[in-house]
Amino acid sequence: MTVWLAVAVGGAIGSMLRYGIGQLTTNVLGTTPVLATFAVNVSGSFLLGIFYTLCNERLITSIELRVLIGVGLIGGYTTFSTFSFETISLIESGESIKAIANIIANLLFGIGAAYLGILMGKILNF
C-alpha cells in the first residue's frame, strides 16, 4: 500500500508541475501549447534518464522512493519520459528492432488514438 501511496503523491505533484510549466512556458515566453508540451516532454525524458541512471548505478534507493519520483513525479509530469527511457533501454540491450517498432507504434497509434478521440468528442453530445 505504501508503494501505491508514493505513486499517487508523486503523480499529483508531477501533474501540477506539468500544468505549471506549461502555463509558464506559454504565458511568459509567448509560445504555443505544442512548444510547452515539447518542453515538458524533453525535460521529463532528461530527468527520468538522470534519475534511473543514478538509482541503478550510483544510489541505493527504496522502491518507495523510486516509484515516488520515477513513476509518480516524473511519470505524472510526462509519460513521454517513460516512453523515451524504455526505447533507449531496448537499444542498449541490443533490441533495436523492438525499439524502432516501439517508436513507430507509439507515434502511429498515439496520434491515431488522439484523432479518433477528437472525432468521438465531436460526435458525443453531453
Structure characteristics:
single chain; 126 residues; 2 domains
The value of Rg in angstroms is 17 Å
Morphology call: globular
Please trace the helix and strand order, writing H or E for each element: HHHHH
**Count of all domains:** 2
Strand content: under 5%
**First CA to last CA: what distance?**
37 Å
Rounded mean pLDDT is 88
Sheet/helix structural class? mainly alpha
**Portion of residues in helices?**
over 70%
The total of beta strands comes to 0
Poorly predicted regions are none
Put simply, the count of helices is 5
Largest sheet: none
Helix and strand topology:
Layout: H1 2-28, H2 33-57, H3 63-77, H4 80-92, H5 96-123
Helix pairs in contact: 1-2, 1-3, 2-3, 2-4, 4-5
Short description:
The chain is mainly alpha-helical and 126 residues long. It has two domains: 2-94, no CATH class; 97-126. The protein has helices at 2-28, 33-57, 63-77, 80-92, 96-123.
Overall description:
There is one protein chain. This protein has 126 residues and is mainly alpha-helical. It has 2 domains: 2-94, no CATH class; 97-126. Helix content is 86%, strand content 0%. The chain has 5 helices and no strands. Helix 1 packs parallel to helix 3 and helix 4 (80-92) runs antiparallel to helix 5. 17% of the residues are buried.
